[in-house]
Amino acid sequence: MKKTDFYDVVVVGAGPAGLQAAIHASRKKVSVLVLGKEHKSSLFRAHVENMVSLFNATGKVMLETGRRQAKNFGSEFMDEDILKITADDGRFELETEGGNRLACKTLVLATGTARNKLRVKGEKELVGKGVSYCVDCDGNFYRGEEVTVVGSESAAADGALTLAEIAGKVHLICDDLKVSEALLAKLDNSHVVLHRGAKVKEISGKEEVNAIVLDDGTILSTSGVFIELGAKGLMELATSLGVALDDTMRFIRADKDQLTSVSGIFAAGDICGPPWQVAKAVGEGCVAGINAADYAKKLHPTL
């Protein structure tokens, strides 16, 4: 087992909110780690023309510049997705897709919340009737049954492994599996049935899901379809810690200091809701970074 590295502040998300939080936290002379992949940020492929002092700037360059700034102030970076976050005796413990174990005094959650959809026949109609976007939320309803996970990244791989301990049989439909060597090794040593290079054409069922149809015509019987496209959803990781959502149940509720309902956990950017603007994300990231660093210094000086 790898050793646990400890930081004052861990920022989850390498977009504009996360980078700004890292910059301001690092300037407070605390240890900061940023987790995430910059190309996953919605800013990466965007052009920005409505941010003060920037006109027709490319998101990729903005993210690369922000990363250099954060590093210049002392932030460290790990280009990995988070699989698990737990609270333990006044601190937070995290596990990454690469098997790295981390601990910190405070967290800044700064990544988007969009749920990618397959957009295939039957998906919309069967949501809540066998179609789910959260293994951690709904997996236990399928104990002993045959289920399917769809996706090619860390969320799908981790979800399939979780279900392998609950369900009777687990299929993983992956167009092009893009996971760490550690996750791949776990899959290879599990009972998960991999369908590499396959795509879902249709989810079938009337009152509930009973099968999926692949693009080559193969029909797989299944009671549940878990659509996990992309990285492990930060929203489900947050809510597992007791972080409160807003009235729409889609975004994290944070106060003017960007503090969530859980002491030591701050949030910034798209995960806190609209408007979807870089200026808002950066402003919230600034506030969250400052307050997370102050929290780490003041409340847990001996951790």
Automatic annotation (TrEMBL):
GO terms for molecular function: oxidoreductase activity. Keywords: Flavoprotein, Oxidoreductase. InterPro entries: FAD/NAD-bd_sf (IPR036188), FAD/NAD-binding_dom (IPR023753), Ferredoxin-NADP_redctase_2 (IPR050097). Residues 7-285 form the FAD/NAD(P)-binding domain. The keyword Oxidoreductase applies. This is Thioredoxin reductase. It comes from Desulfosarcina widdelii. The lineage of its organism: Bacteria, Pseudomonadati, Thermodesulfobacteriota, Desulfobacteria, Desulfobacterales.
